[in-house]
Specification:
The structure holds 2 protein chains of 2 kinds. In chain A, α1 (about 5-20) packs across α2. Chain A has 2 helices and 6 strands; from the N terminus they run αβαβββββ. By secondary structure, chain A is α+β, with helices and mostly antiparallel strands. The longest helix of chain A has 18 residues, at about 5-20. In chain A, strands 2-1-6 form a 3-stranded mixed β-sheet. In chain B, about 35% of the residues lie in helices and about 20% in strands. Chain B has one domain: Rossmann fold (3-Layer(aba) Sandwich). Chain B is globular. The chains are: A alpha+beta, B alpha/beta. Chains A and B meet through α1, β1 and β6 of A and β1, α1, α5 and α6 of B. β6 (about 110-120) of chain A pairs antiparallel with β1 (about 5-15) of chain B, so a sheet runs across the interface.
Chain lengths: ~120, ~220
């Protein structure tokens, strides 16, 4: 359960952004969680709601968008969206050319995408 | 109350502060030409025992130091000190993983003339995978008693590592463990993994692993010379 430490870092960014934009309140937080980021959206959500108490985002709702695992094949240059890397059938090879020279280009990311704020 | 509501686009990496500290550690390690290895595994899979063996083997020729990450106690650091190596204990007091800032806090104590720095993460095959510590290489360890079905159950640890060390191989004759399956499965999710089969009891694979570490160190030194 490392979601709490990640949420603590998230709030550092939220508070800084809120200050910069002159927000009196943060009403919505939207994050992007990669399927392979090691973060469980449900745990992230409960960590968020317990951490928010007493902060500028006290009443904020949380929107989570899960981003897909994507590879770029260096064999044929195509981009591949992996359905689910945890599938029994998953094998690390390009479905178009069979190359194993693939690079993970998305799916590990954790981003604060946007905030909805109130200003006075 | 005439408050205005608006949207602010942020697009900031939530782990950005960890990554920033990790890259400054990486930079320092590079300047000092230290090869740092971050070891990930579940508790009890033999990280400390492997480090004792590797440490003993490398210590005549190289300067080796070990950072021990645990939730509580200095036990692992004491084990490492017993074989004559410097060890620094980080106790996380509850946290299930090491973060770059924890390493940064003790970094000044680490001598600049080390060749190898091993960082034993908190025993946990899930959470440590998300945190870059600035290491040069990441090792994932799996012990034979844990079972041969683990790579796909804990994919992030295997995908973010460069080396897979199978430990406690001396127990293979006694357990229903398919070593071909585990290696095949690990390579299916990360074909670039280098695999070593080891035992800290019989010493199997230790020499090969040390030879690999030496070649990695030399390779990097030549590149940066």
């Amino acid at each position: 359960m490392h979601e709490m430490s990640i949420v603590a870092d998230l709030f550092t960014i939220i508070e800084e952004q809120a200050r910069k934009s002159g927000a009196t309140r943060v009403t919505k937080v939207k994050v992007l969680i990669g399927e392979l980021s090691g973060v469980v959206p449900e745990l992230f959500r409960s960590a968020f709601h317990s951490y928010k108490k007493g902060t500028i985002a006290d009443k904020a709702t949380l929107e989570i968008k899960v981003t897909k695992i994507k590879f770029k094949c260096h064999g044929c240059g195509k981009e591949i969206t992996a359905k689910n890397i945890m599938d029994e059938s998953f094998s690390y090879a390009c479905p178009f050319c069979g190359s194993k020279d693939m690079e993970l280009i998305s799916g590990r990311d954790l981003y604060l995408e946007k905030l909805e704020i109130e200003t006075s | 109350m005439d408050s205005k509501r608006k949207e602010v686009l942020v697009l900031e990496d939530i782990l950005g502060s960890n990554k920033k500290i990790a890259s400054s550690i990486r930079q320092k390690l590079l300047e000092h030409q230290i090869l740092a290895v971050n070891l990930l595994s579940s508790p009890g899979s033999g990280k400390t025992s492997l480090l004792e063996k590797i440490g003993q083997k490398l210590q005549g020729k190289y300067r080796v130091g070990v950072v021990e990450g645990d939730v509580e106690t200095e036990r692992d650091a004491e084990r490492i000190r017993k074989i004559g190596l410097p060890a620094w204990q980080i106790t996380t007091h509850g946290a299930c993983h090491l973060e770059a800032k924890m390493l940064a806090r003790i970094f000044d104590q680490i001598p600049a003339d080390l060749d190898f720095l091993f960082i034993e993460n908190v025993g946990n095959l899930v959470c440590p995978a998300s945190f870059d510590l600035g290491e040069s290489l990441r090792f994932v360890l799996l012990s034979v008693p844990e079972g041969d079905d683990k790579p796909k159950k804990y994919p992030e640890a295997f995908i973010t590592s460069q080396v897979f060390v199978l430990t406690k191989c001396d127990l293979l004759p006694y357990l229903p463990f398919d070593r071909e399956r585990v290696v095949k499965e690990a390579l299916e999710i990360n074909p670039k993994l280098k695999v070593f089969e080891t035992s800290a009891v019989t010493g199997e694979g230790i020499e090969e692993l040390c030879a690999f570490l030496e070649s990695e160190l030399e390779k990097r030194r030549v590149k940066n010379a």
